[in-house]
Amino acid sequence: MIESKNELITEFNKLTLKINDESVIVRGFIDTIKTVSKNMLFVILRDRLEKVQCIVLRKQVNDFDSINKIPLESFVKVTGKAVEVKTEIKSCTIKNREIRVETLEVVSSVSAQLPFSIKDAASKGTDRANVSYNVRLDNRFLDFRVPITYAFVKLLDGVMSEFRTYLKSENFTEIRTTKIIQSGSEGGANLFSIDYFGKKAFLAQSSQLYKQSCIAGGMKRVFEIGYAYRAEVQNVNRYLSEFTQVDIEMEIENDYMDVIRFVHKVILHVIKYLKEHYSRELEIVREYTDFKDVELSTEPVIIDHSEGVDILKAQGYEIDYEDDFNREQEKALGAHIKKLHNVDLFVIKDYPKSQRAFYTQVCKGTNKTRSYDFLLRGEEILSGAQRETDFESLKNAIAEKGVNVDGLDFYLKMFKFAVPPHGGVGIGLERFCKCLFETNDIRPFSLFPRDPSRLYP
């Protein structure tokens, strides 16, 4: 309950705990007003994921006619009796209680035409398809009232929260690294440039070099949950220009398999936590998507990059052992592993060094690297590697890849002063959620998505 001006506001999902005919006060947005007769109205209130039916009788309220004229989406306070009903209320999530209204007060009224119908956006049929998603994003504050939108927000919150909780329980230190960097010398994705007091600077695409600095400083295990930026013109349904990343870096005792096994354990824990603590949100997601529980294995299913190439060649794909896997090929590998092992999460390791950044450790005597990607339902959700810690090897890798060394002094210098063996990963949380919940669009998992076509609101 929420205490306000000495009044106890009852949450919708607590109404079923009320005894029959008990007095209650509730607040919410008006979802629907239906005229049953000249003397009776149904007012459906919505609060986040829940809806409750309120019965308004002319003989019990003083302002019956004015209630029927209240604009939809106005925020109101209702005082009345919580009454048990024998027939299930199919239009509401609270199915065995309704509220017999004594007073209905408009707390905040809608004073303009709604840019889209919340009811249509929340529907599961063709009405939802008729609501432009761009219009919803332009008016994101209203879109948050759509139950599936709120469910996605809550699930992303759960993912972030449990990554943080679990990593802290494993003695990781949470860090905050700078997002304004001097040089784009890390390589890989394109960077956003900004003016920094008359100098050119960039927005960081990851905390890679900085989290490694923490390991060099003896911190042993660190993580960060923060924004990363990539100026790539890609499919807006799969990529974001600004996204949330879990960066993990840790000392390793043996080799990169230590990190693979640990990260696999973390992901399993987070998925299990969601299943146990977010059942209501998951129920909503299942109403709108084809989401099915993800099939997982206790130990990670792992294939080599070359093995993945062989699988694809056998299926008729044209691919070389030096190539990375494209979207279609990832899907094909995911389907193959699912058929063979009945799992949706698996690991591809030992990518060729041509496909990895300069700081990735190379397996001696080969062109393979101690690197890995995790794929979930046939789509990459994270990338990682064991890092090179030998100063001369790093210099040679930088020269070989033609990386700009401006701004790299701080990074290279630390390898002259002894750096423990270490590795890590970067996990895109919005992509992780998109794959986990089987949606065809990444944008619902960003509160205010940024992509090549969107810089508003």
TrEMBL record:
GO biological process terms, semicolon-separated: aspartyl-tRNA aminoacylation
Keyword terms: Aminoacyl-tRNA synthetase, ATP-binding, Cytoplasm, Ligase, Nucleotide-binding, Protein biosynthesis
Keyword Cytoplasm: yes
EC number annotated for this UniProt entry: 6.1.1.12
Cellular component annotations (GO), alphabetically ordered: aminoacyl-tRNA synthetase multienzyme complex; cytosol
Domain Aminoacyl-transfer RNA synthetases class-II family profile: 159-457
UniProt xrefs under SUPFAM superfamilies: Class II aaRS and biotin synthetases, Nucleic acid-binding proteins
Top-level lineage group: Eukaryota
A Pfam family annotated for this UniProt entry: tRNA-synt_2
GO molecular function: aspartate-tRNA ligase activity; ATP binding; RNA binding
InterPro entries, alphabetized: Aa-tRNA-synt_II (IPR004364), aa-tRNA-synth_II (IPR006195), aa-tRNA-synth_II/BPL/LPL (IPR045864), Asp-tRNA_synthase_2 (IPR004523), Asp/Asn-tRNA-synth_IIb (IPR002312), NA-bd_OB-fold (IPR012340), NA-bd_OB_tRNA (IPR004365)
Compartments it resides in: Cytoplasm
UniProt keyword annotation of Cytoplasm present: yes
Transmembrane residue ranges: none
Chief localisation class: cytoplasm
Reaction catalyzed: tRNA(Asp) + L-aspartate + ATP = L-aspartyl-tRNA(Asp) + AMP + diphosphate
Top-level class of the enzyme under EC nomenclature: ligase
Family of this protein: Belongs to the class-II aminoacyl-tRNA synthetase family. Type 2 subfamily.
The protein's name: Probable aspartate--tRNA ligase, cytoplasmic
